[in-house]
Amino acid sequence: MSRPRKRSLTLHGHRTSVSLEDEFWDAFREIAAQDGQAINALAATIDEARGTEMGLASAIRLFVLRRLQKR
After folding, report:
1. Disulfide-capable partner of 4 in 19, 31, 60, 63 (CB 3.0 to 4.6 Å)?
2. Rounded Cα gap, residues 13 and 30, in angstroms
3. Please, which residues have CB within 8 angstroms of residue 3's CB and are 6 or more apart in sequence?
């Protein structure tokens, strides 16, 4: 598995970054494409649902993991 790299996202008009491994980033982009969503829109949905106890990168990793487990 690769080391986390900073990735830029725009959430509700504000730029932010998350540190994700290539494998998680690639799976996240693939899920967004499968759902017909822009990656920023999907990230915003995850951001809104994550609460304050978890960082956005962790929330994205868990989202990807759960989606892959459903296959």
Report:
1. 19
2. 23
3. 21
CATH of the domain at 64: 1.10.3990.20
* CA neighbor of 33 nearest in space, from 21, 46, 42: 42
Higher-scoring residue by pLDDT: 37, 1: 37
Residues 6+ apart with CB under 8 A from 11: 40, 43, 44, 47
**How do residues 47-70 score in pLDDT, each as one tens digit?**
999 988 999 999 999 999 999 998
Q: Which domain holds residue 20?
A: 5-69
The CA distance from 27 to 9, in Å, is 16
**What is the rounded distance in angstroms from the CA atom of residue 57 to the CA atom of residue 71?**
22
Number of domains in the chain: 1
